[in-house]
Amino acid sequence: MKINKKDILTISNMLSLLRLFLAVPIWLLMNNFADNITRNILISLCFIAAITDVLDGYFARKRNEVTEAGKIIDPLADKVVVGLIIIKLYLMGLIHLYYFLMIIGRDLVILIGGIYVSKKLGRILPSNILGKITVICISLVIILILFNVTHSSLLFSALYFLSIFLIFVSLYGYLIRAKEFLKKKNGTIQQF
Predict the structure, then answer these.
(1) What is the DSSP-derived secondary structure letter of residue 125?
(2) What is the DSSP letter of 128?
(3) Which range marks the domain in which residue 37 is found?
(4) Are 71 and 126 in contact (CB under 8 A)?
(5) Cα separation of 150 and 8, whole Å?
(6) pTM
(7) pLDDT single digits (tens) 44-76
(8) Residue 163 belongs to a domain with what CATH number?
(9) Helix residue ranges per DSSP H, 30-153
């Protein structure tokens, strides 16, 4: 699996890299979360990150720029941004330990499993739509927390429980998909 400079310098990969770099100011701004101006800037940066997540995939497909580098950068950016925000929200006492562990645990299993599968296949599997929907749902929960939406509201409760459901379903989907690709490569059933 060889990645060249040309594969990195695409519009879609630049959008993913922008999202990755937004993790630093988002993390720092969360230290002053109580200030309304800071909170508005923080929410704006989260929306920009979410928009780049939608646009990078769109441009990669539209411009036929799906690259091995993009298959690494895009999910890495998602995991870093969401992971750092979730860590900070947990440290601030704004999310429960179990929700924190589910999100971080899912991402670690997918990351470690992705490395294993990539080594076995000699190529990187792209993100799937269920994983993207899960990240979007978690992101919406984060944005509602940043907007101080009460956790007992119908909107918050619906998105929160949907995100928990999607965490498990998407993780299961990734495991089944990895098993199928490994099975095709080896011509035998792989045990996980």
Answers:
(1) P
(2) -
(3) 5-186
(4) yes
(5) 41
(6) 0.82
(7) 998 899 888 888 888 888 888 877 778 788 888
(8) 1.20.120
(9) 36-62, 68-91, 97-121, 129-146
